[in-house]
Inverse folding.
């Protein structure tokens, strides 16, 4: 297939096109996709600027119907589009299908939010004055998304933006244009007016500064690396745009001495190696209390060995390939560095399969220290470190000793221990007897410190970013 950009209601070619390669089979080209230049990015912003007032003036119910129809189509096509997603990004077929369903649920949830945008009517301290507090759209929103959740993350940004009357310029990651193209196609066919949603695929180096720095852009929602997020923040703030950033994590999973080890091992495997470890919520630091450390590690290593790495769409595969060559090289570099700093590395080898692909066995790094580089920086791959600690006190201290603060988890049978961890954790999300990865779409998502900036994503809290508050004072008839 050839995927064009979508600007002002028209599918248009880009200044160039690039192939979309299947990481499970490097000989398989998913399609050719257009790349926008700065002129097309500017045209997209112009289209959004012109279309937004009319879109905002529509009743919320009209916007809701469009989002609901699009959500229905995603749910109906989950198997088809999930197969495409897995082919393009490399997560297993069940994970791909699950992500499409998640995106459909997100669109339908925010369809409801379009008609659940309440204001307030308050009395004034002055006689005869009423105060109306309303929520209005911020205007034109740039949405920049990563490659690891190529439909779910765009959906959870675009859906609330549209629901609350904003117009959107959407730039997906270079690595996953097909998923982005199909999401936009579904929304457009559901009835979006021209200019309300614009798709510009292309290099962030080429069009990123335009999409964030144009004075007509009122808000930017970004998910990606910390370094790029800082640049986005500076560019958007240069002209007063509001900014929402999600930038990663180095998430701890504490295994207390009273943990159910079967459950803890299962949670660590899912949190560390699900989606090939390519999740900002992945359990990258496994912090294990000394008294059960050896038994836990033995069980974990055995469970790791049972992971089947292969083509993402094969039925027996339980972990797909790494997304691309540069990410694979980054994973291997961190594994080698951990080994040089004293870690005992289990796994982490390149694998040959029937088709050429970016296959890496999941890596378990045993005997690491919290100060090791691999425990300070985000790897973003199937790499999990084990850190031995003396007790729960040291475990909580190690868990919080990071510049990130997205999610954290603990496995314990003790209500007192779980409550203490939940209250003392400095992460934005805390999991008790659950993997650190895996969140619901109707509640706030986000972290602290270097992980996040700005209002929370998802759920009702999304309204805080995509709307502005207006306070109106009304004096009644002074003669009455």
């Amino acid at each position: 297939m050839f995927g064009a950009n979508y600007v002002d209601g028209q599918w248009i070619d880009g200044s160039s096109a690039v192939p979309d390669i299947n990481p499970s089979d490097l000989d398989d080209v998913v399609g050719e996709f257009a790349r926008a230049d700065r002129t097309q990015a500017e045209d997209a912003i112009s289209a959004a600027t012109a279309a937004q007032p009319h879109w905002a003036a529509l009743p919320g119910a009209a916007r809701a119907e469009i989002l609901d129809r699009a959500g229905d189509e995603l749910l109906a096509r989950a198997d088809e589009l999930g197969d495409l997603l897995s082919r393009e990004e490399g997560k297993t077929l069940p994970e791909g299908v699950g992500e499409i369903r998640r995106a459909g649920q997100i669109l339908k949830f925010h369809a409801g939010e379009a008609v659940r945008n309440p204001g307030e009517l308050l009395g004034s301290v002055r006689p005869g004055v009423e105060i109306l507090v309303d929520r209005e759209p911020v205007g034109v929103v740039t949405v920049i998304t990563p490659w690891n959740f190529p439909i779910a993350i765009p959906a959870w940004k675009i859906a609330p933006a549209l629901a609350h009357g904003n117009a959107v310029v959407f730039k997906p990651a270079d690595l996953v244009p097909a998923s982005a193209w199909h999401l936009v196609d579904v929304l457009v066919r559901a009835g979006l007016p021209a200019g309300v949603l614009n798709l510009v695929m292309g290099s962030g180096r080429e069009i990123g500064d335009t999409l964030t720095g144009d004075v007509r852009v009122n808000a930017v929602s970004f998910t990606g690396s910390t370094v790029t997020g800082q640049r986005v923040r500076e560019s958007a703030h240069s002209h007063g745009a509001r900014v929402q950033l999600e930038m990663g994590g180095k998430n701890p999973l504490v295994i207390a001495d009273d943990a159910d080890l079967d459950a803890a091992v299962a949670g660590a495997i899912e949190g560390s190696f699900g989606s090939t470890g390519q999740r900002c919520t992945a359990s990258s630091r496994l912090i294990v209390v000394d008294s059960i450390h050896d038994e836990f590690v033995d069980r974990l290593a055995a469970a790791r060995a049972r992971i089947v790495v292969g083509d993402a769409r094969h039925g027996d595969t339980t972990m797909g390939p790494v997304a691309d060559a540069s990410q694979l090289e980054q994973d291997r570099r961190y594994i080698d560095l951990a080994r040089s700093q004293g870690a005992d590395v289990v796994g982490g080898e390149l694998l040959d399969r029937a088709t050429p692909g970016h296959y890496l066995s999941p890596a378990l790094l045993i005997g690491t220290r919290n100060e090791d580089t691999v425990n300070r920086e985000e790897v973003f791959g199937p790499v999990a470190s084990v850190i031995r600690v003396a007790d729960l006190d040291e475990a909580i201290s190690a868990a919080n000793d990071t510049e990130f603060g997205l999610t954290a988890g603990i496995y314990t049978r003790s209500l007192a221990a779980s409550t203490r961890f939940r209250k003392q954790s400095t992460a934005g999300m805390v999991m008790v007897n659950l993997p650190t990865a895996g969140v619901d779409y109707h509640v706030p998502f986000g972290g602290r410190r270097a992980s996040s900036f700005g209002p929370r994503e998802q759920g009702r809290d999304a309204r805080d970013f995509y709307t502005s508050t207006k306070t109106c004072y009304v004096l009644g008839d002074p003669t009455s």
Observations:
- The domain at 251-432 is CATH 3.40.309.10 (Aldehyde Dehydrogenase; Chain A, domain 2).
- Residues 85 and 96 are 6 Å apart (CA to CA).
- The first strand starts at residue 2 and ends at 3.
